[in-house]
Specification:
21-stranded parallel sheet; elongated; mainly beta; five-stranded antiparallel sheet
């Protein structure tokens, strides 16, 4: 007869004890995985909020504030040396830091929630404190966000709260281009023909998406630059260096924020201009020194020298032209330090728009101002002109000619031939609808003498 023994009850008790002891680290492990995963998710959300807030603040600054050099006294909000807390009741933004606050709020980090904080630092130093490798910044913003997070499973282990934090900095830093061809579709938006040579110490951007010849060179054209970015295709018969980057994204107009001088209207035209001093075209038949002001009907420089005193010239219709034999256009004094000229080319109800026409046989030596709202900008076209046609703006000249500054003609084809040697002009930048090289030309990018450096700034994250 088989006999049965009763299980040892002491062993059952040991198993229960072992399971109980094992539950403690198991719960800790589960809490670690669950809560760390949740904190990681919130960390990514916090970083997205910081990134968007910093970028939004800098883009707002770039789109509304003119000039290239700023001080902490320029605006009451421009510098926050110490972290500035975003207001909890903010519903609209009056300045860039508040814009950053609203973007953080839209990304889930509104400070009405007492567990969350958003602070902003900003400044106009050329370096960014949190990104020591960045130099030449015009304006920077650093956003910090934090969130105090109640933990779930980890609370069993005595860890009731966790902290999520993120930081991002964005800045306006110098642009890399000296030619921006903005036409979105044209063949030959950047065009170079024949035995021409163009050398540039900076980059070229071509926005045209023409698949075969957005950028076009014929007849042995020579192009040497630091960078070439083209949205569409390239058809080049000659020498081109470096090889173009094609299929890139288009760039935005880098001077879209720039406003016309008073009394011209931001929407276009200048009917408010006072034409009494120069009511009709100014013909220069003998040597003369011109003063800043409004010139209705334009300026025509013939067989003489027109010396332009430093300041702002508003050209209401007629444009500026040269050449009835040997024309000269110069500054007073030649190559002024700390001063220069700014030409705004516009129109009104009785004077139609006309482009610039500096003839290739003329001598033209002009430079932009080095400070002020239009620092670095030599020429600006009224953006409302020429909706049905594309005028040609000619910036050409003889061997000693130079155009120092930004030529801003977003509605026109700019024909360029100037700066034959790099030691004549510190820098030249062309922002145009289309761009064409005539003859041998060079462009430098030395902004060392210009307050604020390169007037064209790009907005981007730097950390």
């Amino acid at each position: 007869m088989r006999s049965f023994q009763r299980p040892d009850s002491s062993r059952n008790g040991q198993a229960v004890l072992l399971v109980t002891l094992a539950l403690v680290p198991m719960i800790g492990l589960v809490s670690l995985v669950t809560d760390v995963g949740y904190l990681y998710y919130l960390k990514n959300s916090a970083q997205a909020a910081a990134d968007s807030a910093a970028l939004a603040a800098v883009y707002r600054f770039k789109s509304t504030i003119s000039g290239s050099s700023f001080s902490c006294s320029s605006y009451e909000w421009i510098c926050h040396a110490d972290p500035w807390p975003c207001p909890s009741d903010l519903t609209s933004a009056a300045n860039p830091p508040e814009t950053g606050c609203l973007y953080a709020k839209q990304n889930g980090f509104g400070t009405a929630d007492s567990r969350k904080t958003v602070t902003i630092q900003s400044g106009v130093t050329s370096s960014v404190p949190t990104a020591p490798g960045v130099a030449g910044a015009g304006y920077w913003v650093t956003v910090r966000v934090t969130q105090n997070v109640p933990l779930l499973f980890a609370a069993v282990m005595g860890n009731r709260n966790g902290l999520v934090a993120a930081r991002a900095s964005a800045a306006l830093h110098p642009g890399l281009g000296c030619v921006y061809a903005l036409d979105p579709t044209a063949q030959g938006s950047f065009y170079q023909n024949g035995t021409t040579t163009f050398q540039a110490a900076c980059g070229i951007y071509v926005n045209s998406d023409d698949p075969s010849a957005a950028m076009e060179g014929n007849g042995g054209a020579v192009l040497e630059t630091s960078m070439i970015n083209v949205v569409g295709g390239v058809d080049w018969q000659g020498t081109i260096s470096p090889p173009p980057n094609t299929g890139v994204s288009p760039v935005i107009d880098p001077l879209s924020y720039l406003q016309p001088p008073v009394p011209c209207a931001p929407g276009g035209g200048c009917d408010g201009a006072d034409c009494s001093a120069h009511p009709s075209r100014t013909d220069v038949n003998s040597d003369i020194t011109l003063s800043p002001g409004t010139y209705c009907g334009g300026i025509r420089v013939k067989n003489a020298t027109a010396t332009f005193s430093p300041g702002t010239y508003i050209i209401v219709g007629g444009g500026i032209s040269t050449q009835d034999t040997n024309s000269h256009v110069v500054l007073l004094p030649d190559r002024p330090e700390g001063s220069g000229v700014f030409f705004y080319n516009t129109y009104n109800s009785s004077h139609s728009y006309s482009p610039i026409d500096f003839n290739a046989n003329s001598s033209v030596r002009i430079a932009a101002a080095t400070s002020g709202d239009y620092a670095g900008v030599l020429y600006m076209q009224d953006r409302s002109c020429c909706t049905t046609n594309i005028p040609t703006e000619s910036f050409q000249g003889g061997a000693t000619s130079f155009f120092e500054g930004i030529i801003y003609a977003p509605r026109s084809l700019v024909q360029f031939a100037g700066n034959p040697t790099l030691d004549i002009s510190h820098y030249t930048i062309v922002v145009a609808r289309r761009f064409a090289i005539q003859g041998t030309s060079t462009m430098n990018n030395d902004f060392s003498h210009l307050v604020g450096g390169n007037p064209i700034k790009q907005a981007g994250l730097v950390e």
